[in-house]
Specification:
Elements lengths: L1 H10 L14 H48 L8 H32 L8 E4 H18 L14 E4 L1 H17 L8
Antiparallel strand pairs: 1-2
Length: 187
Amino acid sequence: GALESAASQLGRGNLAARAPAQGGDEIAAVATAFNEMADRLLASDRARRQLLADVSHELMTPITAARGYLETLTLPDLHLDAATRARYLTVVSEETTRLERLVGDLLDLAKLEGGGVAITLEPLLVSDLLSRVVARHENAAQQRGISFAIVLAPGAERLIGDPTRLEQAVQNLAANALRFEIGRAHV
């Protein structure tokens, strides 16, 4: 009947399909549960579409920036001084790194959702972790007049965690601080 028809429509991708849920019998209870499931699927589909739009925007931003600088650098009649050319190439390099990070984040997300990411807990020195982050972003920070300082509270010198995931998180924080040029960034 109507419940079977609604289930068939939902199965073919019609997320607006709903079953009539009148009465107080078992069929009405199943129809109500079906409609709740369809509502969750519709909300999930909207969230997925929004995520795709957000990811597309995040990927296009560095691509657009890099393309603009590369097109400028390849103009035959444009004569740039060495410092300007180097600055343009640095921007292209940074945007390429940003793209790599975004794609890596997407791959990590896919692994997390599939249950394929293992967390490795081990002791680590916080100063070593932060030193790698500072070294990675030092040139970009200097170009923007921003300095990093590593300040550790007593007792915070060591921790147990996944070194790769922790470094990734702190690298992202530092990159965001630089991207938005947040005064003097203290990590």
